[in-house]
Amino acid sequence: MEKEKLDLEFLEKLEKLRLAVKRLRFRSHLGERKSPKMGRGTEFSDYRSYQVGDELRYLDWNIYARFEKFLVKLFEEEEDVEVHILLDASSSMDFGNPTKFFYGKKLALAFSYLSLSSWEKTTFSYFQDKIKEILPLERKKENIYRLLNLLNEIKAEGNTNITETVKKYASSLKRKGILIIISDLLSSEFEEGIIYARYKKMPVYLIHTICEEEISPFFSGNLTLIDSETGEKMDILLDEYMIQKYQKALEKFLNHIESFTMLYNVEYLRSITSIPIEDLILKYLRVGGWIK
Predict the structure, then answer these.
(1) What are the angstrom distances between the C-alpha of 59 and each of 35, 46, 64?
(2) What pTM did the predictor assign?
(3) Can you say how many angstroms the Cα of residue 69 is from the centroid of all Cα atoms in its chain?
(4) What is the pLDDT of residue 216?
(5) In the chain, which residues have pLDDT < 50?
(6) Rounded to an integer, what distance in angstroms lies between the CA atom of residue 129 and that of residue 160?
(7) 3-state secondary structure the chain
(8) Closest to 193 measured CA to CA, from 204, 182, 184
(9) For residue 217, what pLDDT is reported?
(10) Per DSSP, what are the bridge partners of residue 269?
């Protein structure tokens, strides 16, 4: 297979996306309602009646002129939070056409680009059994080219350990951050790391990549399956019965992820690699409220 490579043409598509999308909208308090505070935010929220001690500059004089009521404007306080994008670079991601890893790279590049365009302080990292590299993008949009070069250099290899990776990464942050994790979730366990991040009151956005070949296997007959991360081999007869058994196991796995993310208030998006990134961002993420 010819090496999959990100190019400047994809960046041009991202620029068109940026123009179509008002801004990336990550909520810093998943599941918590923002408390309106006067004058400290940028987004108008609501009105309430004037109380002694309120600053007069927040009175809405147009409302008073029409209804002779003293109402104070309220604003949603928006915290300055950092966006951390973590990409799974383990061997299991190197599967499918296009591969889950190439699709994950495009997702990482797209979210980084939109995050920087929204003036968010952004950091990219990729991991296997641990974090392999951290690239601070800061708020400098020109750093997207550094990320592009890095993504074209890294390969999917080795084992993955999402729990230990997320635990160590989350504990290393000196200030509150939003975690965006892009992975196929084919790790022995991933739940504890995410639970830890939520315990630390970090919003977690989990992007689950899956390919068509995993949904509908195109192999049949006598096969030797090799675990891409452990090298373990298994001989099987892949007939109609085994395919049905596999699809039931896959459904159980996907249902578990959905239940887990709902229980721990994690934003979850499952994306098949056959869906163009542009469609995913413009249609699915807009419906989900991730962008505006």
Answers:
(1) 19, 12, 8
(2) 0.78
(3) 45
(4) 82
(5) 1-2, 31-41
(6) 4
(7) CCCCCCCHHHHHHHHHHHHHCCCECCCCCCCCCCCEECCCCCEEEEEEECCCCCCHHHECHHHHHHHCCCEEEEEECCCCCEEEEEEECCHHHCCCCCCHHHHHHHHHHHHHHHHHHCCCCEEEEEECCCEEEEEEEECCHHHHHHHHHHHHHCCCCCCCCHHHHHHHHHHHCCCCEEEEEEECCCCCCCHHHHHHHHHCCCCEEEEEEECHHHHCCCCCEEEEEECCCCCCEEEEEECHHHHHHHHHHHHHHHHHHHHHHHHCCCEEEEEECCCCHHHHHHHHHHHCCCEC
(8) 204
(9) 74
(10) 207
Largest pairwise CA distance in the chain: 82
The pLDDT of residue 127 is 96
Query: For position 232, what pLDDT does the model report?
Result: 73
Alpha carbon distance 234, 105 (integer Å): 30
pLDDT tens digits, one per residue of 190-227: 899 999 999 998 999 999 999 998 888 776 666 676 66
Strand pairing partners for 207?
182, 269
Domain 8-29+86-287 listed as CATH 2.60.40.10: no
Give CA–CA dist 182/167, Å, rounded.
Answer: 16
Query: What are the structural domain ranges in the chain?
Result: 8-29+86-287, 36-76
CB 281 within 8 Å of CB 106: no
